[in-house]
Design brief:
This protein is α/β, with parallel strands linked by helices. The protein has one domain: Rossmann fold. It is 38% helix and 14% strand. The protein has twelve helices and seven strands. A seven-stranded mixed beta sheet has the order 3-2-1-4-5-7-6, sandwiched between helices. Helix 1 runs antiparallel to helix 2, helix 1 packs across helix 5 and helix 5 packs across helix 12. The longest helix is centred in the N-terminal third of the chain and has 21 residues.
């Protein structure tokens, strides 16, 4: 799904469908007892996209959606990814950090479904339409946040750091950053670098970050987009897959952060499957899986004057 530098965002459905697919996978994973996300299913149903409601109702098997068995493992893959980020943020707040930023939060409902220590603030950043939709649906369900939730409707290609500060984020205190599904080609190489530079500039010593990303060289979705689009269209989802990710060489997230004052560690899918206790994929199954294959955790070291990224910049 190669995307050019000057490509526009396109119809809202394209963004919503991508977020809804992940939520639908979490809903099915919840039914299978792999994770616990009680809000995934009602959020998917509220989109009124029949393709996804049929998926969570079991009328459509995810094995029918892809051109190989790898795509059909999405339920387990997204369950592992969700558990990875949930565990990471739980550990971070358990060590006393009291401000959490979820970049491109999509239809996930961590401020509602997780336990948070008193005094914690969770900042959710995403497109205004996504924030408005999710907030409205959860309000209709009578759901109440379990934390001080501060939702920020903003495009991450705009000046999101200023928007974050306006609602109370304090760059002088440590923070936790979650970038789930965001650093896998969704942003252009230049925009990804700017985002990481801004996160660095906003992060006091002791801040923590977790992200998944697709290393350059892994088989891209561009090689299978036509087959996927045809299969999904056959099942009633009219969505163009081209243009959802950017072409070009993206920096390795762990290496980029390490050069900017972060202490980083990287895991792969096999590591995560083993750590979470879910059934581990065979080694052959890990090749060319069309989701992020590396998971980075990072802790911000003490700032040094003049270090790369410390100057900060507008997105």
């Amino acid at each position: 799904m190669a995307r050019t530098k000057h490509h526009s965002a396109g119809p809202a459905l394209r963004v919503d469908a991508a977020a809804t697919l992940v939520a639908a996978a979490r809903a099915v994973a919840t039914k299978r007892g792999l994770i616990t996300d009680p809000f995934a299913e009602p959020l998917v149903r509220a989109t009124r996209i029949g393709f996804f409601t049929r998926l969570i109702d079991g009328e459509l098997d995810i094995f029918d959606l892809g051109d190989d068995a790898a795509l059909a493992r999405m339920i387990e893959l997204f369950a592992v990814r969700s558990r990875f980020f949930d565990d990471f943020v739980a550990t971070a707040v358990g060590h006393g950090i009291r401000q959490v930023v979820i970049l491109a939060s999509g239809l996930d409902a961590r401020p509602y479904r997780l336990w948070w220590p008193p005094g914690t603030a969770v900042y959710e950043l995403d497109q205004p339409s996504v924030i408005e939709f999710k907030t409205g649906v959860l309000r209709q369900l009578g759901a109440t946040p379990t934390v001080n939730r501060r939702a920020v409707g903003v495009n991450l290609n705009q000046d999101w750091p200023a928007a974050l500060r306006r609602v109370g984020f304090d760059g002088g205190e440590p923070g936790v950053w979650i970038a789930e599904g965001l650093l896998s080609g969704v942003l252009s190489p230049e925009a990804q670098d700017r985002l990481l530079d801004n996160v660095t500039a906003l992060s006091a010593a002791g801040s923590r970050l977790a992200a998944d990303h697709m290393p350059t060289g892994i088989q891209s979705w561009a090689e299978r987009e036509q087959t996927l689009a045809e299969r999904w269209r056959h099942h009633g989802l009219e969505i163009g897959l081209t243009g959802l990710t950017y072409a070009g060489r993206h920096h390795d997230v762990g290496e980029y952060l390490a050069a900017r004052g972060w202490e980083t560690a990287t895991s792969n899918l096999a590591d995560l499957f083993a750590a979470t206790g879910l059934p581990r994929l065979r080694r052959d199954d890990l090749a060319n899986i069309p989701v992020s294959q590396r998971y980075v955790t990072a802790t911000r070291r003490s700032r040094h004057r003049g270090a790369a990224g410390d100057a900060g910049q507008s997105a």
